Amino acid sequence: MEVCSVTAPATVEEAEAIQDALRSRLDLTGPGPRDPALVAGVDVAYSDDLLAAAVVVLDAASLDVVERVTVPGRPAFDYVPGLLAFRELPSLVEALERLTVTPDLIVCDGYGLAHPRRFGLACHLGVLTGLPTIGVGKTAFVGSFEQPGRERGAWSDLLLDGEVTGRVLRTRDGVKPVFVSVGHRVDLETACRHVLALTPRHRLPETTRAADRLSRTALKTAMAGSP
DNA sequence: GCGACAG
DNA sequence: ATCTTGTCGC
């Protein structure tokens, strides 16, 4: 599939300016895909100065793997909270370009609209691909919230400056919740429906789990190849 | 001013 | 993210 390339900033100020500029291209119109056929998970694994990006496309109904792509690389930007996209997206975009199918939804590791400048990784990838994206974070980043009820499906608002920017969603009974926020072309309600559909037996979406495993094994391969 | 801070 | 053993529970 076709994907716009990532503009590589040299400084934090430049990176923030890029986010502010791209934010105007965000489509926050819902509801987004109601019944996606293909859902993709993306993730990146690191080791010193090496990394491996991975994309896994699943059949949304069966959760079977349809396609997998990995790309070895080097981090192009240090990790700075709020600028994660500049570290992970260059390689992820390469991986997505090698996909022979086009997913109907991309599930990202991290945040989307729930971000200091309202433009997290999921928003950024959405604008570059033009595809619906959502962000699923494992830990708190920005925003305040109350603990949701203990049962799967329970949720609470993730508030930032008095605005609802996401949801703290319980995907398994009595298990630590995840942080869901919209990326591009999907509304929050629909995003949470998809996250629940992707978590029939684990806390994290099957897309995230599959991409995480793939990126780690690809990293080991990359380390063996260029030591 | 001092911490906190997606992955 | 990554460094790491055993252990409790479905």
Helical residue percent band: 25-40%
* Strand residue percentage: 25-35%
Per CATH, the architecture is 2-Layer Sandwich
Named CATH topology: archaeoglobus fulgidus dsm 4304 fold
Question: Topology, please?
Answer:
Elements: H1 12-22, E1 38-47, E2 50-59, E3 65-73, H2 84-97, E4 105-109, H3 121-129, E5 133-137, E6 155-160, E7 163-169, E8 178-184, H4 188-197, H5 206-225
Parallel strand pairs: 1-4, 4-5
Antiparallel strand pairs: 1-2, 2-3, 5-8, 6-7, 7-8
Helix pairs in contact: 2-3
This protein binds two DNA strands through strand 1 and helix 2.
What attributes characterize this protein structure?
5 helices; 8 strands; alpha+beta; DNA-binding; archaeoglobus fulgidus dsm 4304 fold; 28% helix; eight-stranded mixed β-sheet; 227 residues
